């Protein structure tokens, strides 16, 4: 390798090392980009109604904070009260479920009993993953100064990105070579459309799951219905893992009243998740956020391992953006063009022979004379 190539390689390694050291800040910046993209789309809608840009931005930010404040005023107080009840009810429900399994094992053939799982063993196996996820979430959402600073940083960055989105977009595009900037601008358009699709789909799906869970739990007269419904709606933001985790406390609490209620809760949650996964989400997102289930699960584990709970929460939008950049840059612009020779443009000259014009291809200067 030449000296210039070595310098370039060292510069890339140093850049990757720096990006790795500030990965938490980059993740917060990405969260701000997702929020600002959503609010910017809302502001553009207001502008289409005749509102000026400044007023449209203020309306979008006002609606955003109104939703957050309304959530904390209406949902959080009863949720905290009912969540405290969960800490007492869930262990009792799990213990009762274990006793029911022991009775069931005693009645089945001896050859089948070893294959019936034990809740305590399942909890022990899942405890490292749960502790990691919950520990990271409590660390991020706790009232500590670090968590508060992170939230403020996201809000400030959101406001900055929303005030002049085109200026920050042009700054990002200028980081690329001039011949590739138009291409990057088109890729950013696709990322913006996909993020908007994810936000709309995730928000509506979350409201659907929460509302239907609330209705089902109230019909079954399961205690702490509001807390369980909010938990199921919030956990729906985490595909695959979230719905599975949210059904466990609901079944444990229902089991305290009667075993059939636990089975009924499982059926209700299963029907809700099936309708949401097969009809609601595909109808909203269409083809904008199409990911293979295995890719989604692997991405969740990857981002959880490196970024904690916030990485798990943003795993899907991160995967969507990563997929677009990989598909457009690596596959279309690099791999699909690998080994292809650029087509030569044949130049023509006009010569006159016997008063008749003929088009004769001009000899390519790169080809030697051939006698």
TrEMBL record:
An example GO CC term for this entry is: membrane
Annotated membrane topology? Multi-pass membrane protein
Q: Which UniProt keywords apply?
A: Membrane, Transmembrane, Transmembrane helix
Q: Which GO terms describe its biological process?
A: transmembrane transport
Short name of one Pfam family for this protein?
AI-2E_transport
Q: List the transmembrane segments.
A: 6-35, 56-80, 138-162, 198-219, 292-316
Q: Where in the cell is it found?
A: Membrane
Q: Per the similarity annotation, which family is this?
A: Belongs to the autoinducer-2 exporter (AI-2E) (TC 2.A.86) family.
**Protein name, per record:** AI-2E family transporter
Q: Which organism is it from?
A: Dulcicalothrix desertica PCC 7102
Q: What is the lineage of its organism?
A: Bacteria, Bacillati, Cyanobacteriota, Cyanophyceae, Nostocales
């Amino acid at each position: 390798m030449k000296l210039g190539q070595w310098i370039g390689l060292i510069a890339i390694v140093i850049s990757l090392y720096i990006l790795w050291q500030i990965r938490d800040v980059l993740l917060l910046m990405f969260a701000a980009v997702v929020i600002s993209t959503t609010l910017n789309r809302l502001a553009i809608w207001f502008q289409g109604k005749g509102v000026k840009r400044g007023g449209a931005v203020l309306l979008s930010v006002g609606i955003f904070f109104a939703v957050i404040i309304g959530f904390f005023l209406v949902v959080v107080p009863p949720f905290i009260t009912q969540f405290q009840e969960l800490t007492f009810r869930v262990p009792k429900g799990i213990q009762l479920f274990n006793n029911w399994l022991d009775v069931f094992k005693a009645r089945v053939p001896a050859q089948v009993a070893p294959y019936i799982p034990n809740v305590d063993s399942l909890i022990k196996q899942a405890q490292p993953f749960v502790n990691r996820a919950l520990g990271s979430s409590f660390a991020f959402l706790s009232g500590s100064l670090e968590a508060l600073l992170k939230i403020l940083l996201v809000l400030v960055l959101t406001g900055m990105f929303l005030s002049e989105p085109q200026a920050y977009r042009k700054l990002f595009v200028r980081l690329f070579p001039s011949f590739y900037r138009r291409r990057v601008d088109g890729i950013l358009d696709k990322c913006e459309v996909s993020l908007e699709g994810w936000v709309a789909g995730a928000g509506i799906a979350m409201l659907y799951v929460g509302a239907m869970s609330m209705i089902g739990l109230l019909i079954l007269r399961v205690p702490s219905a509001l807390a369980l419904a909010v938990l199921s709606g919030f956990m729906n933001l985490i595909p695959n893992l979230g719905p599975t985790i949210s059904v466990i406390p609901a079944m444990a609490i229902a089991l305290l009243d009667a075993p059939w209620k636990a089975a009924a809760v499982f059926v209700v949650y299963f029907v809700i998740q099936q309708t949401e996964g097969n009809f609601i989400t595909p109808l909203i997102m269409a083809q904008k956020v199409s990911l293979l289930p295995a890719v989604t699960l692997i991405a969740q584990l990857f981002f959880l391992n490196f970024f904690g709970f916030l990485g798990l929460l943003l795993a899907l939008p991160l995967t969507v953006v990563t997929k677009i950049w990989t598909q457009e840059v690596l596959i279309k612009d690099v791999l699909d063009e690998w080994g292809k020779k650029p087509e030569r443009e044949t130049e023509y000259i006009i010569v006159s022979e016997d008063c008749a014009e003929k088009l004769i291809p001009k000899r390519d200067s790169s080809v030697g004379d051939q006698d």
